[in-house]
Amino acid sequence: MATLKELSNIEERFTGGHRLCAGCGIPPIMRLVLRVAGPHVVATTATGCLEVGTTIYPYTSWRIPWIHSAFENAAATMSGIESAYNVLKRKGRVPQDRDIKFLAIGGDGGTYDIGFQALSGVLERGHNMVYICYDNGAYMNTGIQRSGATPFGSATTTSPAGSVHPGKQQRRKDLTRIVAAHRVPYAAQASPHNWRDLEKKARKAFQIKGACFLNVISPCPLGWYTKPEDSIEDAKLAVETCYWPLYEIEDGLLKVNYKPKEKRPIEEWLKKQGRFKHLFREENRHIIEELQKEVDRDWETLLSLDGKRLF
Q1: Which of 6, 78, 102, 210 minimizes the number of CB atoms within 10 Å of its CB?
Q2: How far is CA 310 from CA 98, 182, 237, 302, 305, in A?
Q3: Could you give phi then psi for residue 25, rounded to 5 degrees?
Q4: Domain ranges of the chain
Q5: If you average pLDDT over residues 270-281, what whole number do you get?
Q6: Are 138 and 147 a contacting pair, CB within 8 Å?
Q7: Which pLDDT band, with edges at 50, 70 and 90, does 148 fall under?
Q8: pLDDT tens sequence across 176-219
Q9: What are the pLDDT digits (tens) for 68-116?
Q10: What is the DSSP string of the chain?
Q11: Is the pLDDT confidence value at 1 over 80?
Q12: Rounded to an integer, what distance in angstroms lies between the CA atom of residue 40 and that of residue 193?
């Protein structure tokens, strides 16, 4: 594990000057992950906030080989790059001693939903690559439409809160557990507020052979209706309420990486976000109670699996 000073001395591979929103959770995630990846890394990014905000022609924030894939196929694109590299290496056409890392990146729309088929194929085939999902809970780049990662009760442009429905009526997918069910060597959840945990998990993912997956919560002031300066605190509160637990599954063994000394009520996280303001009306308060029960149940289940093998 590197110290913060050591990390800061590593060459910046994701530059400033991009057009991602103030307070967006993506830049601190990518800056840290690319530092950890090492000098020889190639990345592909699905259409989304990260791609649009960092590659508006003729500018780019990427100081590494980078490819823009379609919305649905970042995982498939990188699996092709990794396979081509292996062929070239066998033929002696690339340096044999160069350890190149392969990284695919997508938001929750391009991972939970549109890109899940390609991701599942990569996981099943076992390509030697890392996939990172920055989960901001909706299709933020195209107008804040609901996704499979959108929390129950959240208001979006396609699940508006009104007299008919008080926000999204479906539960969010547990994508990290779905990925782990593919029996991959490594899958984990992380948060940008805990840089040590994120750094450790990213480093481990790049070192392990096979398809590895990181799901990182990414605050979005635009879609969460929050203050940009509060983004890191909002990510921390998601962890402290156990809405977004920090855990990893390595070779089938589940480990909870952080257990709050005092678990905060989910209401504290919800009340900071405008997308949940309708839940605090008296007629909708039952949804907060349902969300709390769901978080409590999921947290207790996770704790019961801590230190145990899932496969």
Answers
A1: 6
A2: 34, 11, 28, 11, 8
A3: -80, -15
A4: 4-305
A5: 98
A6: yes
A7: very high
A8: 999 999 999 999 999 999 999 999 999 999 999 999 999 999 99
A9: 999 999 999 999 999 999 999 999 998 888 889 999 999 999 999 999 9
A10: ---HHHHHTSPPSB-S---PPTT-SHHHHHHHHHHHH-SSEEEEE-TTHHHHHH--TT---B-S-EEE--TT-HHHHHHHHHHHHHHHHHTT-S-TT---EEEEEEESIIIIITTHHHHHHHHHHT-SEEEEEEE-SSBTTTT-B--TTSPTT---SSS-BSSS-BS--SPPP-HHHHHHTT--SEEEEE-TT-HHHHHHHHHHHHHSSSEEEEEEE---HHHHT--GGGHHHHHHHHHHTTSS--EEEETTEEEE----SSPPPHHHHHTT-GGGGGGGSGGGHHHHHHHHHHHHHHHHHHHHHTT-B--
A11: no
A12: 26
Rounded to an integer, the average pLDDT of 274-293 is 98
